[in-house]
Amino acid sequence: MVVKDGSGNTYIEWNATALGVPPIGQNTTRTLENICGDDSYGSESYYSVDFYDANGVLVCTKEIEFKCICKCEDTKLDFVLKRTVSTPGQCCFKLYANNNQPCDIYSSSGPYKIIMPIVPGISVTPSSGVTMTTIGSTYVFTNNSGVPYPSSFASHTSTELATICREPGASAILFDLKLMGPSNQLCLQKNLSLECSNIECCDAIEVTLRNPTEQEFLDGKTCCIVTSPTTLCCSPLIIINQKPTPNCPVIGSIGLFKDDALVNGIGIGGGTLQDYIWSPTPCPTSVNTTYVLKFYDMSNNVLCTKSITIPACTSGVVKMGSMEAETGRTEQAIQLSANPNPANQHITLSVENTQATTAVSADIYDMVGNKLITIHEGLLKTGNSTFDIDIATLAIGQYMIKVKTDTGSQTIPFVKQ
């Protein structure tokens, strides 16, 4: 290996055979030489490295940048604000300095300084290992030894400087973070914004889960799967409430996502969200399933995201549809049965009416509440009535038969094979 400076002069020669050391193998790392220099190299800070095989044949050439001292014009520092968990009534961000430099040292020709203006309405707390000094109307960040940042930054690292908090709900506050050079020259200026209004608006949106009422179940507000010939497992309802908050953008639409894929969406059009029931609720599965609700303003910008988990059928999801426990109560005048279940081409619905002739409607619905087949609409005599239903056109899957009278309604699930 031969290292040459920017003028083509040989700087280092390294030969494994002459040194009596093993050659460099594939997928290995080895420290060969230490290169020392100072800022006087100037244009000779770029080196070429020629690699040769054991026979002295040139294999490839690589160029490297050799720089000891970061100058003001070399600055590649970046300042970033990241939202952090706030205490109640506060909106807080972490302030980071990301050093994207190819070198570690800033201070050979004098100290560099990171300064931040003192801004009314915000509080600044230095992070662990950081000291913050007030000079005039600015803060200066140093390490605990008093060395101004970024003198102690290592190359290609991120350093947490402070936590910045303010009262939520107000308009955005803009301020400049500056990196000053050893002659107090401006090396870098980054404009940052503390935007808390949308965070407060997000906190004002509450998403909860609750079990559906029997009427909501019959109205198809929830999604159910058949867990036995007479039992349904149904998702809880997703309930959205928005507390009145001044200056919050109105919500234009909401999207429901699973694994970053849109499941469905609805348009709100600036309406209020009070006890709003998301429909249809995602169907339960054999495992807990997490979804994300994204709330958009009228310009389709994301205002807020909320996560919800639909519990598995085995872990607390409301069970509905057990004919004796839920819908076949002995005091009801109508008793139902459906056979065979599962069914293929036909299914027979038996309705036992123990009261006087009454008006009855019987229909087949899918699991999200869409009416597919009308079985009966009209009077039903006292006694037992049977209905032979052709289900050949139904796709294989799970369905519900709903029977409604003037005193209530009942549902029985079945499976089409």
Overview of the molecule:
By secondary structure, the protein is mostly beta strands. The chain has 4 domains: 2-65, no CATH class; 72-200, Immunoglobulin-like (Sandwich), CATH 2.60.40.290; 204-310, Immunoglobulin-like (Sandwich), CATH 2.60.40; 321-416, Macroglobulin (MG2) domain (Immunoglobulin-like, Sandwich). 5% of the residues lie in helices and 49% in strands. The strands form 8 sheets. The protein has a 5-stranded antiparallel beta sheet, with no helix packed on it. The longest helix has 7 residues, at 197-203. It is elongated and about 110 Å long. Mean pLDDT is 77; it is low at 40-44 and 315-331.
Features:
30 strands, Immunoglobulin-like, five-stranded antiparallel β-sheet, elongated, 417 residues, mainly beta, 4 domains
Question: Which SSEs are present, and which pair or pack?
Answer:
Elements: E1 2-4, E2 10-13, H1 16-19, E3 46-52, E4 58-65, E5 77-84, E6 91-99, E7 113-117, E8 122-126, E9 130-135, E10 138-143, E11 157-166, E12 173-180, E13 186-194, H2 197-203, E14 205-210, H3 214-218, E15 224-228, E16 231-234, E17 237-242, E18 251-258, E19 261-267, E20 276-278, E21 289-297, E22 302-310, E23 319-320, H4 323-327, E24 334-339, E25 346-353, E26 358-366, E27 371-380, E28 383-390, E29 397-405, E30 408-416
Antiparallel strand pairs: 1-2, 1-3, 3-4, 5-6, 6-11, 7-10, 7-12, 8-11, 9-10, 12-13, 14-17, 15-16, 16-23, 17-20, 18-19, 18-21, 21-22, 24-25, 25-28, 26-27, 26-29, 29-30
